[in-house]
Amino acid sequence: MDPQIVISETPPSATDLCEEAINENLSKGLPVNEEDYAVIVGVSHYISLAPLNAPVTDACRLRNWLIKADGGNMHPNHVFFIPSTAGSNTPDQLAIDKALSDIIQMATAKPARRLYFYFSGHGFGSNWEVNGMCLPIWSPSFYNAALSSKAYLDLLVEQDLFQEVYFFLDCCRDRKINTKPLHSMLGGDHPGGANTMAVVLYAAEYENPAWEGMMNNNGNLQVHGYFSRALMEALNGGAVNNNGDITITSFIDYVREKTESYAQERNQTQTVRSDIRNNKNGLNYVFHRTGKVPGTVLTITFKAAGEITLDGPDLNNIRSGIVQTGDSWLVPLGKGYHQITNKTTRSSAFITIDGTLKTMNYDF
After folding, report:
1. What confidence tens digit (pLDDT) does each residue in 121-175 have?
2. Residues in a beta bridge with 133
3. Where in the numbering of this chain does the Peptidase C14 caspase domain appear (predicted)?
C-alpha cells in the first residue's frame, strides 16, 4: 500500500482508534455464528519501509464488524486480530501461522462454515498470481520477509475444512523481481480443496499500487485504504440488493466501483481484482443478510421553478408537480439510479442512491 499525504497534521495513532467490540447476542443468550472464523492482520509499522496510517485502523474496523451482532455475528474468540505496534518486529510469520493453526484445530473438532482472511499493509507482486504480504521486518536485506498470498490461500482451501473462504488483500502489487514470498509453515498430508468456495479480492491489479488517504468518514477525518473503506461500506449496507441481501456479485461490484471512485477523486488509478474458486452456488449466492431494505430519505431543493418529474430505476414515476424556486421535496428513495427532469427548463440529472446514507440533500 502506498501512503497518500493530504494534510500536514499527524493523524491519531491507529491503535488509539481501535475500540473493542462486543457481540450483544452472547449476553442475551441468542445464537451467534459459531462456525465462522477470521484472521485479521493490519501492519502499519515497518522497520525499513515508510509507515502507513490505515492498516491497523482498517483491520480493527473489519474485526469489529465481524464480531458485532448486526455484522458478522461471530464469537470474539473466533476472530484473531493481529495488529502491528510501533518499534516492534511483530507480527511475524509465526504469529499468523499460530492463529491459523488454532482455527484449523477448532474447525477440525467441529464443522466450520466460513473463514475470513484479511491483510492490510505493504505488499508487492511477485508474479500475476502471487502477492507478497510484507512483514514488519521486510527490507532489501530481508527481501523475502513477506507471505505468499497464493500459498496461504491454497493452504486454507486445501484443508477442505471450510465451506467458504473470503480472502481480502489491501496492499500494493507493484512488481518486484526475483522474490520468493514465504509459504506457511502449516500443512497436511492430504490433498483437497474441491469442497471450499473461495472469494478473493485484491485491492489492485498486478503491477499496480493500492492507496490510502485522508477521508471523511461520517464527519470524522481518518486515513483509510480506498479498498478497505469500500469493503466496509459494502458490508455495512452499500452492497445490499433490494431484498436487503449482499450477494457475491453485488459485493464485488460495489467494492470495485467505490475503490475506483475514491482513487479517481484524487487523480489516481486503482482497480480491484477478483477471483473465485469452486463457486458451486452461483454469483447470486447470498453470503450476508442484513434484513434492511436499502433506502435514503432525499431532500431535493429546487434552484429553478418549473414542472418536475422524478423517475425511479425502472422508469416508473415517483413524483411529479409544479415547483417554485426555493421549494423542496422530501422523498424516500430505494437504491439505484433516479432521473429528475425540469420539463420547463428542459434540464435533467441523475441521482445515485447507493444505500449507505439514511438522509441526503440534493440541489436541482
Report:
1. 999 999 988 999 999 999 999 999 999 999 999 999 998 899 999 999 999 999 9
2. 123, 147
3. 37-274
CATH 3.40.50.300 fits 295-363, yes or no: no
Amino acid sitting at position 270:
Q
Does the global pTM surpass 0.85?
no
Q: How many residues does the chain have?
A: 364
Task: State the cell numbers at 128.
Answer: 500475476
Question: What radius of gyration do the chain's Cα atoms show?
Answer: 22
Pairwise CA distance, residues 26 & 20, whole Å: 15
Q: Is 124 helix (H, G, I), strand (E, B) or coil?
A: strand
pLDDT band at 98 (very low <50, low <70, confident <90, very high): very high
Residue pLDDT, tens place only, 110-124: 999 999 999 999 999
Q: Is the pLDDT of residue 12 over 50?
A: no
Cα dihedral angle (239, 242, 248, 250), rounded to 10 degrees? -50
User: For residue 219, what are the CA distances in angstroms to 63, 215, 274?
Assistant: 22, 9, 31
Q: Which CATH topology does 15-289 take?
A: Rossmann fold (3.40.50)
User: Domain extents for the chain?
Assistant: 15-289, 295-363
Cα of first residue to Cα of last residue in the chain, in angstroms, is 39
Q: What is the pLDDT of residue 190?
A: 65
Q: Omega of the bond prior to 3 within 30 degrees of 0, cis? A: no
